[in-house]
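Appendix B. Raw example, untouched.
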Amino acid sequence: MGIFKHLKFKVNLKKINCPKCGIEQPNIRKPKGWTEILWGGNTCKNCGCKTDRFGNEREQ
């Protein structure tokens, strides 16, 4: 159980919205870089905001 305490190993199955514009993000995504490929997340098609898999804005 100790290995799953780290944030990078958690899974999010809920729908997320963009934190900037509020648009719902798709479940099936096209990763825009290695960070999104390895750890999940999305780039909003509307405003370009990069989010992690939980819908929080990533630092640039």
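End of appendix B.
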